[in-house]
Amino acid sequence: MITQISHDLLIVGGGMVGLALAIDSARRGLSVIVVEQDLPEPETAVAGVYSPRVSAISRQSQDWLTSLGVWQHLPAGRACAYQEMKVWDGQGQGRIGFHADEVQADDLGHIVENRWLVSALWHQAENTPGLTLVAGRTVQHWDQQTHQVQATLSDNSTVTASVLAACDGRFSKIRRDAGMATREWDYQQQAIVTTVRHQQPHRGVAHQVFLDTGPLAFLPLRDETGDEQASSIVWSVDNDAVQALLDLPKANFLTALNRAFEHTLGELTDCDSRFSFPLQQMHSKAYIAPRLVLVGDAAHALHPLAGQGVNLGFQDAATLAAEWQRSHRRGEDPGSERTLRRYQRQRQGHNLAAMAAMEGFKRLFGSDHPLAVLSRNWGMSQLDRLPLAKRPLISTALGRSRAN
Fold first, then answer.
1. Tell me: the pLDDT tens digits for 330-381?
2. 193 in the same domain as 108
3. How far is CA 55 from the centre of its chain?
4. How many other β-carbons are positioned within 10 Å of the β-carbon of residue 132?
5. Helix H segments across 127-276?
6. CA distance linking residue 34 with residue 119, whole number of Å
7. Domain range for residue 9?
8. What does the pLDDT look like over 141-169, one tens digit per residue?
């Protein structure tokens, strides 16, 4: 049992962003404790078996995770590099392609199952000096005091720290307890996710088609055998149509999916169990409060249109860890308002811009007005012929636009 231990940082939430923040902060000389409600489960990679939740990891995020010693612990072959992305309008002829060669890069990023990222992060966290992991417990109560935060855990132990970082996700209990206001909107849609098998190899290409209901993405997967005939799908569907698709017999679901995807990878031959989650957008009006800071999905959650959610969270974490190191070197309090405001100033505007861009894309491709269809198809076709004009978009996907 933990009695009362004083740390620089208390991080609530041991998911991808929380663990990465903890590792980076501890490596910069701060004392860190992470409280995670779930116990880590032993993971064993099995060829051809994939988990339904995946993330598109940008090159910038990969470089950062490598510098933390995390990327090296991913199972061999399970991070699927993609060199190209093909996007088209399902209601017209507009198409655009992005290739790593256009910006002299080896790839545009990697598709990685979330469970392997969490497993690699947990492994590295366990071996990082100055970092304490508390699993299987939750924060029951916490108080913002003048010079510290004190938290009572579910086993009645207490933890004190200079600052509390909420990394507990979209429905953050810490954010709610603090009474921090958010802006939220519901798209009245859900995303259906599963893993599918297809006749033709994906050859390291990610695909996205914009349907009248929203985007359908095929994200390439690879296992330790090098097989390229599996993809993870994210299919945006209106609420009133979701259950019918989930309830369809597998063969009928594959037929509907293949029709929507225009048989781009040949016939779809199989799929795993189907799951769905609501599509919503959320942004906290403030990222900070006295002795409290929101990070990742606890501060912002966006439409999975471009798969950038976790990358924004990683950028939050890298920025915050750097600010904490700066304050640590100056002998300042890492929970001071000055330190936390520097983080908020750097990240809030950047994340709002990313969310606005995603919302703009969603509205543009969500319209079936003939003029909107014609204009976006013309625009995509014209842009595809201008490699120089596409470079900023590719660089953004790689994460190169970050200034800090």
1. 988 999 999 999 999 999 998 888 777 666 555 555 545 554 455 555 455 5
2. yes
3. 6
4. 18
5. 173-177, 239-247, 250-261
6. 15
7. 4-40+118-183+280-366
8. 999 988 899 999 999 999 999 999 999 99
